Structures are given as structure tokens and as C-alpha cells.
Amino acid sequence: MEITEIKKTVKKAYTKVLTERGSGCCGTDCCSNGDNMAEDYTKLDGYVADADYGLGCGIPTEFANIKEGDTVLDLGSGAGNDVFIAAKTVGVKGKVIGLDMTEAMIEKANANKDKLGISNVVFRFGEIEEMPVENDSVDVVLSNCVLNLVPDKSKAFGEIHRVLKNGGHFTISDIVISGDLPGNVKQAAEMYAGCVAGAMEKKDYIDAIKAAGFKEVKVLKEKTIEISDESMLKFVSDNELKDYKDSGRKILSITVYGIK
């Protein structure tokens, strides 16, 4: 799939999420038993229900070591779920920037911000491969189930490195794979918007982070994501599904950390 078509598909899926609240799993019903990948945010300080569309695959703020006064950047900020959690921690002396390439999500995030009367948050329209963020200006970068949707991940990690201050760090929750996915799944637009077909092999993902210049890179949390047979059979044959299951290949949610 061409890069422009990938981005068009992702934007369409995330815009649709706003009118079909609760679809989860990055906008599609791609997980087993109708469940999504998202974890429970409801007990976190700063949680805003109107910003939580169940689109994540982890809780990066749990591991991000955000401090009062920090400048935090959330990539693929959506309606502001992780942004508002981080904003509570950085306080009035800090700042949180939410970056998203979907206009409808920026509008929803700003509506949530205005409703809350929060002054230490700003939402910016833009793409992760070319961020409208200054060099060496950010203490902490967050992202939740978004980097796997970016076609040029090496460029994305390079941009993360560029905007972080020396000694700054990122905490990213994302989808990776262990072993190769069936070809039809890789090519399917719906599964791409569902955070699966764009996922890299775990080792390659970690290698891309290190190649961008990060040190002390480590996986802080990992879990297997199960996709229902019904969802898989939209894209693969019965025999391909059996081969996939028998192969031991896995789709994983990981939370990874690295320092500039």
C-alpha cells in the first residue's frame, strides 16, 4: 500500500471512531471476543472520560517518570487521553503538547481542553515524520499504539530523537510482531488502521530505535494480543489461518523506553 493511501486510511478510521465511540482497537473490532487492546485508565489522576476512546494498547504514562515542570509531547494524541494524564503531573509550571494528523481528533481534543479550562496543554496538527516541534525542546515523549501506524518508522524515531533534550527520554506503548504475518493481513487496509498490518518485527523495531541514537533501550512491559478467527478470516483463508496459529507467530503489545 502506498504511503499516502496508508495515511488516508488511518485518518478515515480515526475520524470514524469519533462517531462510533467505543469501537476500540484503533478503530476496528480486531481483537478476540470483541475486546480491544486498551487498558483501564479510569483510576489515573487526571483521567478525562470524554478523551478516552479505548484506542491504546498500554499506559505509557505509568512508566514515563514525568516530573513537575516537564515539557511532554504525546504523539498521536487523539482526543487527549494521555495528554490530560500528563498535564496533571507536570502542573502549571510544565507543558504538554499533543500532536495528531487527524483534524477531527484535534477538534475533539481542543473541545475537551476548553471544557476543562486547562492552560498547560496545546494540541498541534502535524505528522510524526515531520513534527512541528523545536529541536531539543522536550523532556518526555509519549505515544500509545500509534508508531506502528507510521509508514517510515526510522524517520519517526529520528524525529523523536531530534525534539528531545539531551537526557530526555521516551516511553512508547505499541504493537509489534514476533514472526511474520500472513501476506494478506499485511496488505489489508482495515487491519492497518487496526494497528496490526503496520507492525514491525520486535527485533527490527528495537533496532530502529537504537539506530536513531537512543541508549538504555528496554522493553518495560509485554503482552500477547489475540485476534479473533472471525477478524482474521476476512483477510486470510482457513489454511492460512491454521498455518499462522501453528507457527507460533505472535502479535505483541510492548511498552518500550529509551534515553537521548
Average pLDDT for all residues: 89
Task: Give the count of helical stretches.
Answer: 9
How far the N terminus sits from the C terminus, by CA atoms, comes to 32 Å
What is the C-level CATH assignment? Alpha Beta
Share of helical residues: 25-40%
Structure explained in plain terms:
The chain has nine helices and eight strands. The chain has 260 residues and is an alpha/beta fold. It has a single domain (3-259), classed as 3-Layer(aba) Sandwich (Rossmann fold). Strands 1, 2, 3, 4, 5, 6, 7 and 8 form an eight-stranded mixed beta sheet that branches. Helix 3 links the parallel strand 2 and strand 3 (121-125).
Briefly summarize what is shown.
The chain is of the alpha/beta class and about 260 residues long. It has helices at about 5-20, 80-90, 105-115, 155-165, 185, 190-195, 200-210, 230, 240-245, and strands at about 70-75, 95-100, 120-125, 140-145, 165-180, 200, 215-225, 250-260.
SSE map:
Layout: H1 3-19, E1 71-75, H2 81-90, E2 95-100, H3 103-116, E3 121-125, E4 138-144, H4 153-163, E5 164-178, H5 183-187, H6 189-193, E6 200-201, H7 202-211, E7 215-225, H8 229-232, H9 238-247, E8 250-259
Parallel strand pairs: 1-2, 1-4, 2-3, 4-5, 5-6
Antiparallel strand pairs: 5-8, 7-8
Helix pairs in contact: 1-3, 4-7
